[in-house]
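Box S2. Input/output pair 1.
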Amino acid sequence: MCGLAGFWQLRGGSRDVLLRQVQAMSDRLIHRGPDDQGEWCDEAAGIALAQRRLAILDLSAAGHQPMLSACRRHVLVFNGEIYNHLDLRRQLQAQGAAPAWRGHSDTETLLACFVAWGMERTLRACTGMFALALWDRQQRTLTLARDRMGEKPLYYAWQGDTLLFGSELKALKAHASFGAEVDRGALALLLRHDCVPAPYSIYRGVSKLRPGHLLHVDALSPQSAEPEAYWRYNDVVSAGLADPFHGSDAEAADALEQRLGASIAAQMLADVPLGAFLSGGIDSSTVVALMQARSSRPVKTFTMGFGEAGYDEAAHARAVAAHLGTEHTDLRVSPDDALAVIPNLPSIFCEPFGDSSQIPTFLVSELTRREVTVALSGDGGDELFGGYNRYLGARRTWERMRRLPALARRAGTGFLRTMPPDAWNRWFERIRPLLPRRWHLATPGDKAQKLAEVLSLSSGDAFFLHLASQWQHPESVVMGAHEPATLLTDPGAWPDTGHLAQWMMAMDAQSYLPDDILVKVDRAAMANSLETRVPMLDHRVVELAWRLPPQQKIRDGEGKWLLRQVLYRHVPRALVERPKMGFAIPLDSWLRGPLRDWAEALLDERRLRHEGYFHPAPIRQKWQEHLGGRHNWQYPLWTVLMFQAWLQETRRTSL
């Protein structure tokens, strides 16, 4: 795992200036690669490349980057891991196309494949996570590429006649030519989604390369280059639905265990200590169980908890770890520990990011890095196997709700809003013993509030967009904003699944997963110089998941049904069966307590008017309702607060 940066200055430049400038960009990424650094430039072309290395495979100097191909035509900077690189070497060897290997790094393998097969064939042959920049010295072409599922980030921007690119925005901002203003349309997207989805960034004219895409820039018409897809998620959806798995439940569980187990085995390859996050939930427990089954020694596992009711999974994780025999470490975090992270969030994420689980993700990454350099994660299970409550709601709630008369919907909305969320929570707690297990919901008051909001919607896609939005009408909050189109609002880009829950899963896998979940994990882990790997996002696991019929994902009101069957082969059902919690913090009470003064300062009406990004009235209304306990507006308020904190930090560091 590493960080890369570079620029192409079309007018050329002196060697000293090029190297000094690219090193300044690289210096902003030292957290992504504290073990080594390198720079390379071509004065005549004006190209400069830099890389910060977190050494994982081949710790010797043979893994140093930027790396030149054996023929010295290509120069590569690369962030990520190619898990099948040894198999690729064998293929090259069999074809007589292998160079005289200098080491055993996957970077060297990639370069040899690019020389022998070209860019697109190589990318399709790779199993892994990556962002890369490849310079062809002969053709004077630059190619940027990003992995299929979007595990590794890559930003790029034209600033005059200079193309900047790098793993994080902070690298681009270190270049002397960088100058961009806040994109108000992207700010509206932030308020809706908690994040700025690709291809947008918080700055106008600065883009994120989308997952499964490459950008090929040549010297003849460089600024006309447009990203191209070398792999499409929707193609996988269509292929899987056209060729469904026809075996029994047991055969499907066998196939999933074999495929996921092979992915995990490949991702356990490392020349440094390796472990795994373990929350005690379905996804992480499955990954750890399959890791331990393939390890001759106890796997190192890590979790953390807050010690507050409804937010502490540490005891569940300890029980799973004890059953599997892992070497387990957990950390009990106090509110003060978590609150201490908040001032650093703007620099960690380098553009405003509103998913509050960023805090526990950072803390568990910090804990994990004390023992290991690589950690496997269970992310992706919800999107592939139907784990989120909204997929269950697509059938239980939406399908029933849409058949109700409009008058009945309005009456239902009024009833659900008769009590604030805290009152609903207390009422549900009293009647919990009388309810079936599937109704043992975490935060039922918030869910009642959300249900009230969706009762008046008219279509399944509107239902999904509503659930995916923190602010329902962000253009009315952001001054001068025009919200741009995204996957969620462009029907031409939607997959054809014929099943609302399946459609929602495919949409989440292309939006919420890469733009929120994977961004959160990457930035929080890399801030601690920790590499994370996500075995469920191996594209072959994804392909198998889309061959599985819906009833093997969601059955009897339970999501991730087939994944659970695999887990039950290794862990007793009683240890992992409980309501889904997510990776949350008690943000609602913190905003009324220890964070109140900090939030009040950032949401001050005069400040909001002076800065000129937000209309104060809707924000102040939510803030007052939250403080008074009438509504729990923790998430929409947190997104605004994260922008305000980012804006404050950006102005401070630019002085």
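Box S3. Input/output pair 2.
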Amino acid sequence: MKRKILIIVFIGLLSLTSVVEARLRVLASYNYIADLVEKIGGDNVKVTPLAKGYKDPHYVTPRPSFIAKMRKADLLIINGGQLEIGWIPPILKKANNPRINPGNKGFLDLFSFIDGIDVPKEISRAHGDVHPDGNPHFHLDPENILIISGVIRDKLIDLDLSHKGIFTKRHKEFVEKWRKKMSEWEKALEKFSGKNVVQYHKNFDYFLKSFNMKQLGTLEPVPGIPPSTKHILEMIEVINNKGAEFIIHDVYHMKKPSRFVNRETGVKLVVLPHDVGSVDEAIDIVSLFDEIVRRLLK
């Protein structure tokens, strides 16, 4: 009798193992991507984000564990727009997994489905850390989340047609919830429409455009270059002349310049999360936007 029970347990464990192994193994460069994959894929995917949500997304330190994960992955999804240019390519090369190489079925570049903004007219180091394809922080426009969620659904179906019905259903449910939240956010931020805003870095260009806020300028003279005293004083003069509703700062850059401008102008300084996991409150893509809106309204 005991032997029979052990055999049943063993068979059950084998079945469970085969189910786990049958799930699509997905790697996501950033947390917001991983969250979208989980929301659409559910139990049929095993998704792992590579970057930490609270870190600077431009500079991710490749780890040996990334290589091991890439060797086993069925799908690699990146933000794109050359945001990962400094760390994804060398890991891909070392992993030597042709399934997830660019151009193959298991590779997905989300930026390629987006109309980028801030596309530079010329590429030069004099313009700082400029992305030649345009500003890569597109996921902070709620409309773009609708676009890429559909792209992710289609890719999951492409790799696992047997679960097409589940992926389609879960995506539909997500879209319905997301559209309701979009209406809430639009109504909450309507009073800031047309208002001037200053950023430290150009993280929130898509967000400001989506909610019709006007960017006066950035405290970085050019992307990736720390502000000089001269530039800070020039921005203070611009703010004093034209007025501003907020100074927006991300969670990972040094806040000293923004605090100085805040003191000199009296303009509210707001530290905003940029990704899932960048602050404790941003546990998924919905709460990320909820927290951004909450902090702006606070």
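Caption for Box S3: The domain at 22-183 is CATH 3.40.50.1980 (Rossmann fold). Confidence is low (pLDDT under 50) at residues 4-20.
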